[in-house]
């Protein structure tokens, strides 16, 4: 899971809708349900922190720094990642899938694919990230060979309260890694928020 899985809405510095039922306790419960369902199918499980998970650290450091050193106040402890077999990389961490770097990212450019290009230039190699909530791809061949960078899409609602008509696309990526670390990224767009195609089959709701 590549970041922004939870919002940490209560801890955000943005203005909050008082009618929104998004308590930290609720986010913990719902993320535990998600991890429990994933754990049934995945032997190796990682949660890479995004900027939204990092809201917990920033809130503690800004408002109660003495708690930051207390065991149990870190994100992976508070959200019980160990209970579901998830390993944790804080915001900015990178997971290697063969020759592909997977990270949440922190760069945003105006159009789909532009951010992937900017992150490739920053990382210096092939990378997949999710920070923009868009889908896009960028390919580059240089003296070191072929490279690719991907924006991973999102599976969140497309109606956030802080922006109208966001330029986001729902979707996800399937990554296959072969001998020598060579990889193939297949981007799967979710159509009409209801279904997607994979392997010649349709999945989702009517």
Description:
The protein is of the alpha/beta class and 206 residues long. It folds into two domains: 1-92, no CATH class; 94-206, no CATH class. It is 19% helix and 27% strand. The chain has a five-stranded mixed sheet with strand order 3-4-5-7-6, covered by helices on one side. A hairpin with a 5-residue loop joins strand 8 and strand 9 (183-189). The radius of gyration is 18 Å and the shape is globular. The mean pLDDT is 94.
Strand order of the largest sheet: 3-4-5-7-6
For the record, the count of structural domains works out to: 2
Low-confidence stretches: none
Give the amount of beta strand, in percent.
25-35%
Secondary-structure element order, as H and E?
HEHHEEEHEEEEEEE
Classify the secondary structure makeup into a structural class.
alpha/beta
Give the beta-strand count.
11
Count of discrete alpha- or pi-helical segments spanning 4 or more residues:
4
């Amino acid at each position: 899971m590549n970041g922004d899985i939870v919002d940490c809405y209560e801890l955000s510095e943005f203005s909050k809708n008082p009618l929104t039922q998004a308590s930290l306790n609720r986010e913990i419960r719902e993320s535990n349900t998600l991890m429990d369902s994933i754990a049934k199918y995945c032997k190796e499980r990682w949660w890479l922190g995004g900027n939204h998970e990092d809201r917990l650290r920033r809130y503690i450091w800004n408002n109660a720094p003495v708690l930051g050193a207390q065991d149990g106040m870190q994100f992976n402890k508070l959200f019980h990642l160990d209970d579901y077999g998830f390993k944790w990389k804080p915001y900015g961490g990178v997971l290697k899938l063969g020759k592909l770097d997977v990270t949440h990212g922190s760069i945003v450019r105006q159009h789909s694919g532009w951010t992937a290009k900017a992150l490739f230039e920053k990382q210096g190699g092939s990378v997949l990230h999710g920070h923009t909530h868009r889908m896009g791809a960028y390919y580059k061949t240089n003296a070191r060979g072929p490279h690719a960078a991907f924006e991973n899409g999102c599976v969140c609602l497309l109606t956030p309260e802080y922006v109208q008509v966001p330029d986001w696309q729902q979707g996800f990526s399937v990554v296959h890694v072969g001998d020598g670390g060579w990889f193939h990224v297949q981007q799967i767009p979710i159509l009409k928020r209801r279904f997607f195609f994979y392997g010649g089959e349709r999945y989702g709701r009517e």
